[in-house]
Fold this protein.
Amino acid sequence: MTTVTRAAAFAFAATLSLLSGMAASHAEDAFYIGKWKIADAKPAPWVLPSDQLDPNEPKALIGKTIEITATSIAGPGDFPCAKPQYQVIEGGPEMLFQGSFENMHEQDPSQDMQKLAAQSGFTSDTHFRTVVTGCEYDVDMSFGASNDTARFAINDYIYTITRE
């Protein structure tokens, strides 16, 4: 093997190694991939006493499984999505549930966004990651410190999902 051939082989091997490392890193970054069980539902903090919530909706979803893959989302109700376009957004409680806590705080400055996050189940978290799916029904999942628990809002309920 000539020096040029060895150098070319080394460069090729280094490129393959770099590319496979990048792919593994990207796969690790997709912390939301997996099977999830809908474990709980609570009325969202923005629900007013005069709002009429459908008590049957959570009953139809709790205990069901959502499966998130790189190319699709399977699950009950509005979850199925053939071609999600995932995007991860990071920030504080103001970005949770599509900015609902920020809206509440703007309408009433006494509303503490961190306390609203705690009421929603994020008891000790201050930094959040929200997975925007880009799907038709726009169900975004928010994570606190744990990659094994997330929350999403549908029709004024906040649902908790746990990794199976």
